[in-house]
Amino acid sequence: MKLRLIRRDSASRLAMFTAPVLALVLTCVASLVLFSALGKDAGAALHALLLKPFLSWYSFSEVLLKMAPLLLIAQGLAIGFRANVFNIGAEGQFIVGALCASALPVYFPDGNFPMMLPAMIAFGALGGTVYALIAAALRTRFGASEILVTLMMALIAVQILNYLLLGPWKDPRGFNFPQTVMFPDNAMLPILFDGTRTNISLIFSLLASVFAYLMMQHHFRGYQLRTAGLAPRAALYAGFSAPRMVWLGLGLGGLAAGIAGASEVAGPLGQLQRSVTSGYGYAAIIVAYVGGLNPLGIIASSFLISVIYIGGDSATVSAGLPVAAVEVFQGLLLFFYLLTFTLIRFRIEIDRKVTA
Amino acid sequence: MSQPALLRLAKVSKRYGSVQANHEIDLEVHSGSIHAVLGENGAGKSTLMKLIYGVEQPDAGKIHWNGQEVHFARPSDAQSLGIGMVFQHFSLFETLSVVQNVSLMVPGKPAELAQKITDLGDQFGLSVDPHAMVHRLSVGERQRVEIIRCLLLNPKLLILDEPTSVLPPQSVRRLFETLRKLQADGMAILFISHKLDEIRELCETASVLRGGEVTGRVDPREHDARSLAQLMIGREMPNVAHAAPRPPGEERLRLNALSHPRASRFGTTLEDIDLKLRSGEIVGIAGISGNGQQELAALISGETRAQEPGMIEIMGKKVGQLGPMARRKLGFAFVPEERLGRGAVPEMSLADNSLLTAHSRSMLSRGFIRRSVERAFTRECIDAFDVRTPGPDAEAGAMSGGNLQKFILGREIMLSPDLMLVSQPTWGVDIGAATAIRRRLLDMRDQGCAILVISEEMDELFEMCSKLHVLHKGQLSAALDAADTTPQEIGRYMIGAVT
Question: Is the CB of residue B308 less than 8 Å from the CB of residue B320?
């Protein structure tokens, strides 16, 4: 007996919406079993994981805070992914964006620099873009795989960060902690809702989503990128420049990650510190794919992933779940999502065996 | 025919999803006979062969071998009973020698196999050097290797799937001699083709397939090509009568000593190619695929850049190093031989596939796609070129080869080009669609378009072209006047007997 996946003629819209719901239900069932086996109160754990983020305004605002960088980076990455340009090192571009933005408040700690905040965002954007474009240059000129180059450059970025925090940029009155001075007020992003940490970087992310949607679904440039990804030889036939797709795909990914990095230091951190390498750049890859690389889908997926991050934090505290169990929960959710999504696109056919 | 048939199919059916590929097929093949299966592309010939060879299993019906009912779960079951098959697309490893390829399927020591290959070659006119590397062999020689490999397994029935589609006329003759010798030796042969003349020459019985059903069992020698075609396509053959071409006008395309090194070991280096093409004429490039056809097409379209700008001139401009878009702006259009993945994006709708090359037809406003223009263009193309599809939203990948070809050709023609390159216009296209495609190209010529056609189908080239070149091992022959030359002469160029 042989199992085969056969592509369905069309996937219904209803099914597209039932997939995430079904995935959530399956995840809950599997985690109930898992958490009970660990001897924990499974009901309380699920409550903390899935409901707590919505039960207080503050925890919900934390979801939005987390969502901002994930959404922004994922939108940028998805543009490249649609064109088969695989920028895996958004984490590096995020760090370089944070570094470049931090340079201004580090050298002007009193805040006497005109247009401090806009300049920081611009520096961050520029830094992230240039850092990603190094990979584009190596790919178009020497054919070096952008997957490897961006990934390795992410490791380099971490070391640059370490060097600066342990050396020239270390706060002289910081008790030798590897962090810079606290940023002046005019280097900080305005808070969106009083009493929370959610800042206007969420607006940046939503604007980026609108931009990505218009470009990828309605602009000829987006069409060219999609063509390059789906059928590279058709793009060549039509005369769409392949190197330009690489520059564009990596450049926009780096730009988004750079702005996100700048927003992180000018937002919740308020200074440059080691914890800026929090893995947003890697998580955004998952966000982009769970969102089906579709700009609207990515808004939903970034929200979902943020909820389970925040929920995971509270579950370790209130239900005493080990961190590993929370990670298993997150993995299960992705697994079941991919499973249900595959079953919507494909049906399973069983070959009958005919014997002699 | 008193003895029982070697192979008998009784009401065999096979369905793929919503497509009934074979419906209650009856077929008998006797030892010592050559039986033809005749049908258009998509008539169910390939499916039928897969059922006989055990690649697929029938949903209903019975297969009898020497009077005994049999079931084939896989090709090796069919092989063990004595069924051999030569596929349309060869399955040889190019980096191995002939005898190495043979030894992958046939047990025995290489030295013995080499001797057997030589012996069989002498006996049936299949001479080939057992120690030659396959990538150095001509298409005809590769086919001989495939046949020898089957013969070494002592088959009683040999199936040949469109064996002549890749051969020059001279090699076809030689293949037929071999098949007649095998027939005299008592072998049963199942010969699949859509070429009527060949079947009339070679076979004494023929089953005609149309829409998955047998529509006739005839002696092809007693029918003329016209009535066979009628059985095959179910209606009168469209009459092909064309106005004589008017004298050609100004020069639109010129290749000046175009040379280009091959990109890989299995590519072809183009050497010193000269060609002129003027408005109002169709020039054909004959030759077997793999002799530089793909390389030449990519150089003319701009997908590959030439080494010197002056090697290619379009509308009198040196375009050798311009990209495809720049060449299209000069009035160039191109129908490539691969439809899916090159001429069209399989996962996109037809409307979005219009945009691929027709974006200059006011489909963009400040770079944003004007969906209404895109859809109107697509609908017009579907109507004007008889593309059978649910509509502009249908995915290109879901269409049959012939329909997609009509769509791509229609899209390129609707750009009203001054110069067109069409590569293998009717590959895998049924007779009805092929006739329509050729008529469209002739209409374009009459409107003053300059057209270059690259094709393996000699009949097609003679029908349309006023001048012919032959591409062989990367070299292009001088222009031959189509009225003064014969398929045999073209064939001699195709195998390199003349240069």
Answer: yes
Return the residue in B81, B345, B364, B422 with the most chain A beta carbons within 10 A, the one to mutate for interface testing.
B345
CB A199 within 8 A of CB A192: yes
Which of A223, A240, A346 is the best mutation test for B, with the most CBs of B within 10 A?
A223
The alpha-carbon gap from B321 to the nearest alpha carbon of chain A, in Å, equals 13
Task: Kindly state the DSSP code that residue B342 receives in the 8-state scheme.
Answer: T
B251-331+417-494: same fold as B7-233?
A: yes
Q: How far apart are CA B358 and CA B378, in angstroms?
A: 10
Q: Contact B345/B407 with Cβ under 8 angstroms?
A: no
> Which chain A residues have a beta carbon less than 8 Å from that of B344?
231, 234
Q: Name the nearest CA neighbour of B87 among B145, B159, B21, B155.
A: B159
Tens digits of residue pLDDT in A157-182? 999 999 999 989 988 888 888 899 89
**Which one of B347, B357, B367 has the shortest CB-CB distance to A238?**
B357
The pLDDT of residue B1: 45
Tell me the nearest-neighbour CA distance from A146 into chain B, angstroms.
23
Tell me the whole-structure pTM to 2 decimals.
Answer: 0.78
Average pLDDT over residues B255-264: 91
Written out in words, the top-level CATH class of the domain with range B251-331+417-494 is: alpha beta
User: Does the distance separating the beta carbons of B323 and A233 come in below 8 Å?
Assistant: no
Provide the edge-to-edge strand list for the sheet that holds B188-193.
Answer: B83-86, B157-161, B188-193, B34-39, B205-210, B213-218
pLDDT, averaged across chain B: 86
SS3 content of chain A, % helix, strand, coil (to 5): 75, 5, 20
Cβ <8 Å between B344 and A234: yes
Q: From chain A, pick out residues whose CB is under 8 angstroms from the CB of B73.
A: 353-356
Q: Radius of gyration of chain A from Cα atoms?
A: 22
Q: What is the pLDDT of residues B56-94, one digit of tens each?
A: 888 889 999 988 888 888 888 888 889 988 876 667 888
* Residue B70: partners with Cβ closer than 8 Å, 6 or more residues away: A356, B63, B64, B77, B81
Domain locations in chain B as residue ranges: 7-233, 251-331+417-494
Residues from chain B contacting residue A234 (CB–CB below 8 Å)? 341-345, 356
Of the candidates B71, B334, B348, which has its C-beta nearest A356's C-beta?
B71
> Would the pLDDT of A78 be above 80?
yes
For chain B, give the percent of residues with pLDDT over 70.
Answer: 95
Among A62-71, B8-17, B277-286, which stretch is predicted with the lowest mean pLDDT?
Answer: B8-17
Mean pLDDT, chain A, integer: 89
Is A271's Cβ below 8 Å from some Cβ in B? no
| pLDDT tops 90 at residue A23 | no
Both tokens of residue B113? Answer: 């196999």
CB nearest B324 (choices: A218, A219, A238): A238
Q: What is the pLDDT of residue B89?
A: 66
Q: Does A346 touch chain B (CB under 8 A)?
A: no
- Alpha helical stretches, state H, A143-241: 146-166, 201-213, 220-230, 232-238
Nearest Cα to Cα of residue A63 among A311, A292, A321: A311
Average pLDDT over residues A335-354: 74
Q: Which fold has domain B7-233?
A: Rossmann fold (3.40.50)
Give the C-alpha separation, A224 to A232, whole Å: 10
ipTM value for the complex:
0.80
Kindly state the tokens that stand for A321. 């779940």
Contact B303 A236 (CB under 8 A): yes
For chains A and B, what is the number of CB pairs under 8 angstroms? 78
Q: What tokens appear for B25 in the block?
A: 């097929």
- Domains of chain A: which residue ranges? 75-291
pLDDT tens column, B294-307 = 999 999 999 999 99
Q: Phi and psi (nearest 5°) for B192?
A: -100, 130
Contacts of B357 in chain A (CB under 8 A): 237-238
